[in-house]
Amino acid sequence: MKFKKALITGITGQDGSYLAEFLLKKKYIVHGIKRKSSSFNTSRIDHIYDNKSYKNKFYLHYGDLLDPNSLTDLINKIKPDEIYNLAAQSHVGVSFQLPNYTTQVNSLGTLNLLHAIYDCGLESKTKFYQASTSELYGEIQESRQSEKTSFYPKSPYATSKLFAYWITKNYRESYKIFASNGILFNHESPRRGETFVTRKITMGISKIIYGLDKCLYLGNIYSLRDWGHARDYVEMCWKVLQYKKPDDFVIATEKQYSVKYFVDECFKYLRIKIKWYGNGLKEYAKIVSFDYKKYPFLKKNMIIIRISRKYFRPNEVNNLIGNASKAKKLLKWKPKTNIYQLIKEMMDADLEYTRKSQIKYKL
Predict the structure, then answer these.
(1) How far is CA 325 from CA 144, 152, 184, in A?
(2) The whole model's pTM is what?
(3) pLDDT digits (tens, 9 = 90+) for 155-178
(4) Annotated catalytic, 157?
(5) CA distances from 222 to 234, 263, 292 (A)
């Protein structure tokens, strides 16, 4: 039996780790590219690498999206059936601080991968998936964003991803490469980076509960987002490359919630009652009631959330919600995890992580 081979960039990230798990269950041979670093950053995939049942099925290679020669050599050696480009500088706020680096990795990195397929003569063999983003829509042109909605990026990150989106279409049309874009709306999990707002919230609350911090500082809590689970979304990424022809698809839950709502639901799940006061930069939340025995580090009337100007973006995107009707119809896909299940999973994971960290610190 011949097994399909997949190459994943960004395999050490949230999406890459879930996708690797998914493809291995589908009996793929999975290759991943990781950057050479002075510190280890493989925690999300260590459980895969250490699993003896995946011996000769899971491989990691050093590489860099900005080194086209090494990419070409690696792709020519592996000759993958599918390439999933999930690597990126993906934090919107950071992209304002590192616009040059963000642009190089996200734009030229995608170009280098596509051209490597062409250079290796694999146009008719290798399918290419580009992880695109709802941030492309930015200043929204329609109330629900679909594949036909005009783009209006409002950050260096979104602008760099716009180049990646169009160069993917260009290589599809110019060289007949099976190259598709998945326009992913926000997708979260316990593996989300701690600088992203949902994980910042669940981790921040966990630290306060265990007495490691006193207050969580947030930015624009009225931003509206379409949040799904990364585990559901990587299945969709795979489905995009199994479709009969290359195309572009929105991946979204089609439900929208504010950052403030996410915070409220986290506390509701923990059975901690909070109340909001003030407005603008002076808005804050206090603890009203809780179980004293369960949460000994909390205090009544403790201010637990404050707003900080430093967490606002220079150019805010306030309102995103996807229209995934095309994916539902053509790919027979729909998300399995709702926001309440997502919050439960993230809160449980971060509470356990913080508890173990506290014990380790005390020892």
Answers:
(1) 11, 21, 14
(2) 0.94
(3) 999 999 999 999 999 999 999 999
(4) yes
(5) 28, 11, 31
